[in-house]
Amino acid sequence: FVETESFGRLYATGDLGRWTQGVLEVIGRIDRQLKVNGVRVEPEEVESALLKYIIRDGDPEPQKDHVRPVARAGVVATSSPQQLVAFVTLREGIHLQVADLHKHCESLLAPAYLPKQIVILRTGMPSLPNGKINFAELKAMADELILEAPKTVLDSLGQMRSMSKWALLENEMIHRCYAFWMVGVLLDHYAMCAMITDPSDPSRSLPSCTALASSKVAPWSEALIRSIGNDQDLFGFIMLGAYQDSRRGKRLRLSWIDLYILGIYLFMAMPLPQVCNGLTAGFAYPTETWQAKVGSMKTDGWDQAYMEQADVTSGHRWYLLMIVQAKMFVALCDLARIPAWAQVCIAALWSCMGPMYGGDVCQAGLGPDAKFLLTWLLDSCWMWIRWVEWYATFYVFCFHYLRPIVAWLSQRLPKGPTWACLATASSMLLGMFMALFHYPSVVLESGENTRWLILELAATMLQPALFAMGTSYWTVNAGWWGNTTLGCYVVHFLFRDRMTELFRNLASLLSWDSTGLLLPAAMLLACFAFTSTVGPFGHYLLILPQLSWAYRKKKTGHQKRSSRKSRPLLCMLWKVLG
């Protein structure tokens, strides 16, 4: 309220008005000044320019009967980064192109005042009960518009994709998760956690990290390592991979990229290990692990004997085959018009039927060539491994239902950095609980003892989900690591012996540390260094054919455009000379 001599106490509304021919006209607010890219912008000036647009009907001079097509205009700035977005409504019966409004603004306004986007609202301007423009709703609409605006980026497989800013923000969160989970996979494999079978029971794995089996290592050091690894990493990769695939808003279709992934899957077993063994003189090859598993079995590294034991050099390549199989299943079901719930039920029933292992091609009496090719394709002698199908079922479920679940929960769960921190901490505590009291995941690793199925599924699904929720508020740009997890996953088994030796040496060197925290920190740092250097190098070697093809296609397109632009000039020269 303000005190005046003539009218007494008045209320200052903050409206900006003008007196026009005896009429008080409210034209905006006095406190709407914006700061965009360091420049102070008066949105009313942009709105005034839009309202002044005139359809001249070919007459360069404005006349009274010329139509002013813009009825109302509202200009707001998006949240981050700040960009001007203008919303306009047109008078009844008027049709107008956005490009005309852009040209009009460029002729009247300074570059800093030019709106990034101009939107023509067909349903009317959002208004408050008093008739004023609802700028809060316009700001929300502008933020949503900017998030959905497409941007061309290079994806992890070297493809140029048009993605909305919202999808790019999703990718940033996914990259952070992928980077962390890849470190967990390396810790699991290089510390040989639950990877050595129990001598008294070959069907079970030892519940420990064999590389750290020493009196010099504190028990809690090993527990920390186990809590970061375990099956939650693979479940996290599957969960967010399916989440990305479901982004398209249409039916899943297999593409040549899936065939490319299948080729990488085959390449992991042969000839990648053999080539790396030859080029590095055995440094990038798990020789010790090979000898420990197969003993004195003779093989030249290219025969059937090698292929039956190729898991030593290319372990966990079954994951890539499982993803391709799951996507093929979803694509075929979509073609057959099978609803999503039925697809999940079919996949779940399929993964629970039949023996744990079935269809031994190595004992089927096939010819040498057929047996070799099938073993190469199947990653083992078995055509059917039931516990692998559980992972495929999880992909199918996440593909159809994870995005709706996330949308539903995002409207109900609390938000903010504090809750994100709580989600991250809960994920880590859950991992520690599983590492201490139920390790390894018996059902998910071997398919045995299904009485623990509910516990293992719940823990391995909840732990990565909580971690993903927590990373949504992280500000770390993990694109370098998240984009190169495929290559890191492909090549990491080749350095298994070297990294295991490093971990054992670190355990001896840091045995003096009574806290038991330096060893896990050093191991994390070593794995981080691997994912920062060796992994990306292997990744870009894998996608080099795709990058070369994309570069050649881009260069060819540029040459064609240059040729089209030069033709009119050549024609003009020909006419002049003629």
TrEMBL record:
Pfam family, one: AMP-binding_C
Domain of life: Eukaryota
Residues annotated as transmembrane: 390-409, 421-440, 478-495, 515-544
Boundaries of every AMP-binding enzyme C-terminal domain copy: 69-132
SUPFAM superfamilies the record matches: Acetyl-CoA synthetase-like
Transmembrane among keywords: yes
InterPro entries assigned: AMP-bd_C (IPR025110), AMP-bd_C_sf (IPR045851), ANL_N_sf (IPR042099)
Keywords from the UniProt entry: Membrane, Transmembrane, Transmembrane helix
GO CC field: cytoplasm
Coiled coil: none
Sample GO molecular function, one term: phosphopantetheine binding
GO BP: any one term: amino acid activation for nonribosomal peptide biosynthetic process
PANTHER family: FATTY ACID SYNTHASE, NONRIBOSOMAL PEPTIDE SYNTHETASE
The protein, known as: GrsB protein
Originating gene: grsB
